Write the structure tokens for this entry.
Amino acid sequence: LSAIVIADATPAFTTFQSATCTTPLPASLTACSATTQPGVGGTGAIAWTLTGTLAPGATGTVVFVVRVNP
């Protein structure tokens, strides 16, 4: 796989806190960045863009943190 974009959104009744790519990246990926994200305390779309290729059977992880609204 190449030109990988992972998209998600903050769930209902939560606010965004952070979005990250975990390390180390699989050897065949050259970069990972959170390219779309709401401001801290906001809501909305989150996207990560990965460059390079993801080899068959390889895995990686992206993470976002939200706070549940009171």
